[in-house]
Amino acid sequence: MTAMTSSAGIPSTLFVGCEPNVLADGRGWILAVGPGARAAAPAGTQVVELAGQTLPGLGDSHIHLDELVHLRVGLDLHRTRSLAEVLEQVRRATASAPPDGWILGRGWNRSLWPEPRWPSRHDLDQAGGGRPVLLASKDEHSLWASSAALSRAGITKATPDPPDGLIDREGDGNPSGIVREAGQLFTDILPRPGRSEYLRLLEAVLADLAAFGLCSLHTMDPSETLFCLQRLQAEGRLPLRVVVNLPVGTLGDAERVGIRSGFGGPLLRIWGIKAFLDGSLGSLTAEMLDGSGVARIPDPELDHLIERCQAAELNLCLHAIGDGAVRRALTALERHPTPWPLWRPRIEHAQCVEEGDLARFRSTGAVASMQPLHAVSDRETADAVWGPTAAHAYSWAGLARAGVPLAFGSDAPGESPDPLLGIDAATSWRARADWYPDQALTEAQALAGYTTGLAFAAGMERECGQLAPGYRCDLTVVGDGAVNATVVGGRVAFLRAG
After folding, report:
1. Per the omega criterion (within 30 degrees of 0), is the bond before 175 cis?
2. Which pLDDT score is estimated for 8?
């Protein structure tokens, strides 16, 4: 390809000092890579000095921007390691909270506590001074509420379990304070930041993600986040590519206005609909073949959902963690083949897959959207809950051998959004931990999960994910195990000081 300035007269950019060098035109497309990049640069080319190894821009196939925003206004409990630590954070928050104000937080993980019992509302009643307190677990599938929070939500002894959810109860039938797979009981009563504040927090979250070397995000978020992402893009303040997957409750709206997968542009687009087939490992609600767990969408409804998405030409992202939920997803997809070339249904998480089901991903055209760091944090819980079945958990290598497209992410804030940690988890960690090391990937396979596989999962494989002429200039530059720079569309989104 011949190097030149863009038709708009915007100069090309040459990224040097990194290996390999990269030349991009004024619109952010790669013109040349490697030793010939400097020679191909036309007069007037901007030169940007970087240092380190140049990788195709890394991405995250499953992240929650809305939750990351709300972590900035609530308690971040991801680093707590005991019930006492969580309650101490709640006590500190009460010092500045109004007497009737909510105390919110995310990230507690009872599996890490010395005594991993389920906590109760009574713990929060004392620590929160009678205030409404609501704390989401690390996996977001369990909520821990104080008595005041339960009262504001109208949850009493007489409240029945919601569809596909559980209200844990004490011996006398009163709610214990733990609500599983039923966050909708609190949605309408929780305080939310105003739009201007939300925009400010979202922009800060995106800047942090750019510092991790992320160029592309596939987020699972409500319409409020999409609105704010559009505002940032319109104002030239959206630093990363964002692919939005909308909650299943918005499918009817998308059908009415005719939104299809790919609606939008290269920086912000809508791709699919996110739906839950089961719960999670940590909350003991993953649907397993042994009959345990929670099945959140019955098969007739799942068939109808697939038919609607296919008719609307909207892809479907099915949350399925247990081997039972994964099998139900695959069986349903087999019942509904489609000739639509962009039909790329995704099974989100796929944390436990029975060995005989691995090849079925390929036959249904399903993408395995997985999070390698889940294996690191879930290993002990998987062994304790799943026992020998854990041999089929986090089956990255098995899926790769079956020819299944892998798209890797973090599920942040559930795990760190750092893709370098994810690559390590998918490769050398298995052997270090001596935990089913046959499921480890090569570095090239893991890197593909964060680049080419990620692009394929959003229908962008012809423009993103590779360091080659004709692809968008998305770069992650790494040196000494750290991200030195992030480049999105030929523009520097992050540059490490020094």
Report:
1. no
2. 57
269-327: pLDDT as tens digits? 999 999 999 999 999 999 999 999 999 999 999 999 999 999 999 999 999 999 999 99
Closest CA to 153 of 133, 129, 123: 133
Q: Give the count of alpha carbons within 13 A of 126, CB side only.
A: 8
Residues 220/223/229/233 CA torsion (nearest 10 deg) = 130
* Cis amide leading into 222 (omega within 30): no
Strand 30-33 and strand 22-24: the pairing is antiparallel
Coil, strand or helix: which one is 291? coil
CA–CA dist 296, 287 (Å, integer) = 9
pTM for this prediction = 0.89
Cα dist from 439 to 239, 337, 395, 400, 474, whole Å: 35, 29, 6, 9, 29
β-bridge mates for residue 145, sequence order = 134
162 burial type by CB count under 10 A (0-12 exposed, 13-18 middle, 19+ buried): middle
Q: Under a CB-based contact definition with an 8 Å cutoff, are residues 312 and 282 in contact?
A: no
